Amino acid sequence: MLNDISRFRRFSRAVTSEVGALDTSFLGRGRPLGAARVLNAIGQGRTDVAAIRAYLALDSGLMSRLLRSLEEEKLIELTADPEDARKRRAVLTPAGEAEFSVYEQLSNERAEKLLGTHAHPQALLEAMDLIASALDRNRWSFEEVDPRSQTARYCLEEYYAELDRRFEGGFQVSLSADPDAESMMRPKGVFFVTMSDGLPVGCVGLKGTDKGYAEIKRLWVSPAARGLGLARKLMAKTEEAAREIGIKVLRLDTNKALPEAVNFYRKEGWTEIDRFNDDPYPDFFFEKIL
Amino acid sequence: MLNDISRFRRFSRAVTSEVGALDTSFLGRGRPLGAARVLNAIGQGRTDVAAIRAYLALDSGLMSRLLRSLEEEKLIELTADPEDARKRRAVLTPAGEAEFSVYEQLSNERAEKLLGTHAHPQALLEAMDLIASALDRNRWSFEEVDPRSQTARYCLEEYYAELDRRFEGGFQVSLSADPDAESMMRPKGVFFVTMSDGLPVGCVGLKGTDKGYAEIKRLWVSPAARGLGLARKLMAKTEEAAREIGIKVLRLDTNKALPEAVNFYRKEGWTEIDRFNDDPYPDFFFEKIL
DNA sequence: TGATTTACCTGACTTTAGTCAGATAAAATG
DNA sequence: CATTTTATCTGACTAAAGTCAGGTAAATCA
């Protein structure tokens, strides 16, 4: 009925009025939108004036005045950065915290109102994750983390759950050769998590071994972030780290229930090799010389 | 990882920056945003000054000035409404059409850019339809149309395709008792389509018969609009129309592969009755006395 | 038909946002 | 230590958005 572009633009219109409504709801507190945005940026934990300026794309003069107006309202306190007295750091006063939480409440109420009246809020949220991930694709951050950290565990659990859904007969980590955390941390290996505005959307582990090669493990991309080239970026990061560590040979294994993964490795220049372990799950084995 | 509200707000942030970027792209034409918005409202076919004012939530004074600035640019022409000379109607001049289409092009390019770089644009569009439908739920319009019209045919094709996916052994309209168009139009019956900002999201037919009852046929709600109470509204519209026509008894049939439909009819006060036709598809038969 | 309402216009105003050229002081550089 | 760079501030602006109290002419009402 509507073509693709019309559908996109219908979405834009719907969302513009929703976002506009959020903006105007921020005006109910007797403060211009600019000041409210700065207050919220500080409330979110941004303390560096320069960082806030970059985040909100504000002119330095305008920023200076907005900060002063919040200071005069006694909502924030500005102090010189102890390391560099040219820089200024902004923190909320208790009154500022209270005011910030009112804005938080306004945002949360809008969210609850929309989600609460929908019979399938999870489907709605998945759709939102998909769109947010697509829009945010140029702001991914790749973080090297402990594979036991909260973000890493979140990714791994999502990964295991997907394998369990897709493998014939399911998947149990305990039956698989689960690498211990140290083998996926420096100096042996690494573990990367990709964050997209607070949501982990992908991960990959590089597991060092004493057999003359390292293994790629737990390459996972969230359903919301598929089709955006994230797997390739994660692999590039990992290969870069492998070179730093001094690794020359990379190996990995995968399962026939994951045809897009098998395809991906072939396309990315991996060579199929013979089985090199006795893990019960994999059907395919690949190698890449760095 | 993120809770529901945080996910919603991540979506809002992503979309705010996208919408902001669209807004600023509108500034490349040397015209303030307010004037650009009015020009676009007129280009979309809104001619009534009052309607544009309501749509854009503008003060009458501001509106008046914006219209004049567009008039001075010779992009629009203002004429008195022939039926009520107090009212003014705005239409684009040829130059205005050209300028409007530049804005259209800017919007379309943004849409193409995002969709074109995604490996699964259809999934993205489905997500957008879902969200747009949820946000637009308070602006549904219910239109009584010819079941052979383009919008009706679109709904029916979507409906048949879904039955074909869900019925064991598929679904073929030709095997079913396909009602002829006249039986679903006044004075015998009606056919309603629900529009959500240009996209048909649901339909229902009321088929008059000469057997002392009328039948509810082709009740369909788009996947994007499920969970928003649309089926109930469509049924209410249909019952209202049935009363107008003078129908006292409503009947319908449905299939065991559509358990949510069976549930819905039970919940909405329909009584299960014996088979009343020899259509090969239905398993359940219901009746409602008006 | 006179009074009232409606739809839009005009003028005078304020607020907000944004720009830009210096000024200032701390830090980094040679 | 003088010079340059960096981070922020200040003052003097402009443009855009928005507000509000009348004003005008057409339509509607009593």
Quick synopsis:
Chain A is of the alpha+beta class and 290 residues long. Helix content of chain A is 46%, strand content 20%.
Task: Draw up the topology in text.
The structure is a homodimer of 290-residue chains.
Chain A: H1 4-25, H2 33-43, H3 49-56, H4 60-72, E1 76-81, E2 84-92, H5 94-116, H6 121-135, E3 141-144, H7 150-166, E4 190-196, E5 199-208, E6 214-221, H8 230-245, E7 249-254, H9 259-267, E8 271-272, E9 284-289
Parallel strand pairs in A: 6-7
Antiparallel strand pairs in A: 1-2, 3-4, 4-5, 5-6, 7-9, 8-9
Helix pairs in contact in A: 2-4, 2-5
The structure holds a DNA duplex (30 and 30 nucleotides).
CATH class of the largest domain in chain A: Alpha Beta
Q: Give the name of the CATH architecture of the largest domain in chain A.
A: 3-Layer(aba) Sandwich
Beta percentage of chain A is: 15-25%
User: Which sheet architecture does the biggest sheet of chain A show?
Assistant: 7 strands, mixed
What is the largest interface, and how many residues per chain?
A: A-B, 53 and 53 residues
Reported by name, the CATH topology of the largest domain in chain A is Aminopeptidase
Computed CA radius of gyration of chain A, to the nearest angstrom: 24 Å
Note down, in words, how this protein is organized:
Chains A, B: This is MarR family transcriptional regulator. Chains A, B: It comes from Roseibium litorale. 2 copies of one chain form a homodimer. In chain A, strands 3-4-5-6-7-9-8 form a 7-stranded mixed β-sheet, with helices on both faces. Chain A has a two-stranded antiparallel sheet with strand order 1-2. Chain A has 2 domains: 4-117, Arc Repressor Mutant, subunit A; 138-289, Gcn5-related N-acetyltransferase (GNAT) (Aminopeptidase). The model of chain A has no long low-confidence stretch (mean pLDDT 93). The first copy, chain A, is α+β, with helices and mostly antiparallel strands and 290 residues long. Chain A has 9 helices and 9 strands. Chain A starts with a helix and ends with a strand. Chain A binds a DNA duplex (30 and 30 nucleotides) through residues 32-34, 49-50, 58-65, 68, 80, 84-88.
